[in-house]
Amino acid sequence: MLLRIDHVGIACENLDEKIAYYEATFGVTVVSREVNEEQGVKEAMLHVADGEGGGSYIQLLEPLGPDTPVGKFLAKRGEGLHHIAYGVPDIEAAMERIGGSGVRLLDERPRHGAMGTSIAFLHPKDVGGVLTELVESPPRPS
Ligand code: MC0
Can you give the residue ranges of the VOC domain (predicted)? Predict the structure, then answer.
């Protein structure tokens, strides 16, 4: 049911500084930058590898303000690992299955994620303390 690790989301105070650090330290490259008002973040995706149905990435997240999910996370815990995101083939089917097992869905329906993806979050308290995201990638051009 899970295709791959799509990305790891890392909360940071300064996106440009953190991008420079990851590029210099790990030799990864930014393939996308977006502002996602609905999620309260500006973010960058740095490509790591290609997998079934899509790539895998490091996602760097800077909050748009203190009263956002990442803003609150930084205030409480400081910079660091914010969430892990798994690629799924069909996000609505995955939400139905996982929600049906008793895990709280933080989104009633899929939302817009980075690079044209559809995403949905699972409550960290129901996933062993790990904020977990499901990601369905758009079809690849043939
Ligand atoms: C909060 N908690 C976490 C956590 N954030 N645990 C693990 N990882 C995290 N990232 C824990 C808190 O410590 C607390 O536990 C409990 O969850 C409730 O947290 P809270 O601080 O009282 O509540 P809120 O209001 O901050 O809500 C937390 C929640 C929220 C996870 C529900 O942040 C949320 O809905 N997140 C989903 C959306 C999101 O994160 N968007 C930003 C990335 P204790 O034990 O202290 O009670 S957007 C993104 O990534 C997109 C662009 C993409 O991938 O394409």
Answer: 4-137
Total structural domains within the chain: 1
**Token representation of residue 99:** 């929600």
In a domain, 27, yes or no: yes
Looking up residue 58, the CATH number of its domain turns out to be: 3.10.180.10
- Hey, what are 140's tokens? 């690849």
* Cα 107 from Cα 95, distance rounded (Å): 9
pLDDT band, very low/low/confident/very high, at 51 (cuts 50, 70, 90):
confident
Q: What is the pLDDT of residues 28-37, one digit of tens each?
A: 999 999 999 9
Q: How many A from CA of 68 to the centre of ligand 1? A: 9
The fraction of the chain above a pLDDT of 70, given in percent, is 99
- What ipTM did this prediction achieve? 0.97
* Per-residue pLDDT, 106: 98
DSSP 8-class letter at 125: G
Residue 142 lies in a domain: no
Q: What is the pLDDT of residue 136?
A: 96
In this structure, the strands spanning 54-63 and 111-112 are unpaired
- With a Cβ cut-off of 6 Å, ligand 1 is lined by 9, 36, 39, 41, 43, 59, 61, 69-70, 72-73, 76, 82-83, 85, 106, 113-114, 119, 121, 124-125, 129, 131, 133
